[in-house]
Model the fold of this input.
Amino acid sequence: MSKHIHTAQQYWDVRSELFANYYKKPSFFDKLFRQAVYTRTAVALKTIQEYDRPTVLDIGSGPGVNSVTWLKNSDASFLLGIDFAASMIEYAEKYAVAEGVAHRCKFIEGDFMKHDLDHQTFDVSVAAGVFDYIEDARSFIKKMAAVTNKAFVASWPSNGIRMVLRRYRYTCSVYHYSEKTIRELHASCNIKSLDIIPASGGWVTVARKK
Ligand SMILES: C[S@@+](CC[C@H](N)C(=O)[O-])C[C@H]1O[C@@H](n2cnc3c(N)ncnc32)[C@H](O)[C@@H]1O
Done:
């Protein structure tokens, strides 16, 4: 059983370097057991590349390594990253400068559900590795759909041995999904299509509005 002594914000606020290194210096263990992390990055990149100079919203942008990868490998005109862990934002800002893409992005500290985006919308929005920590996934996906013009990408962990181990190790709450739940969650999002792509220990979805 998970101890649940931290919020997801507290949990992630001390793990920016650790998470960045899953991409920057992947260990043998990471390559073997964290395939889903790399699959969701690749699916999101492919989706961003489908559009012409898209604007991108990276929800729960973490250390910003994905944000930078997407900017460097697409013609995205602008990316906004939002994360409620201050150390993640700090890391992402420095990393974007170091990688020469700071002029095409901005990172803001805030809770996606509470932050007022002031009617700003984005061609593509992504929540990679985020629904794992969301208690009210229905409201979250609805807000995601509302701020997206073209496509939104999300990852969803399934139940199973990996989830049992995560719940044992993690000190914050972790949530899991089924394909049926994922379809139900998207039902009220006003979308034209939904791709559900299996990724180890879960799925990555691409929902298209037009
Ligand atoms: C597992 S990390 C993934 C980081 C990044 N998306 C990636 O794939 O490399 C999850 C991130 O989501 C953030 N997060 C979770 N719920 C959030 C919310 N409601 N608003 C903003 N950030 C959130 C956490 O702070 C954490 O940095």
Summary: Residues 8-9, 12, 19, 60-62, 65-66, 82-85, 88, 111-113, 128-130, 133 surround S-adenosylmethionine (CB under 6 Å). The radius of gyration is 16 Å. The first helix runs from residue 8 to 13.
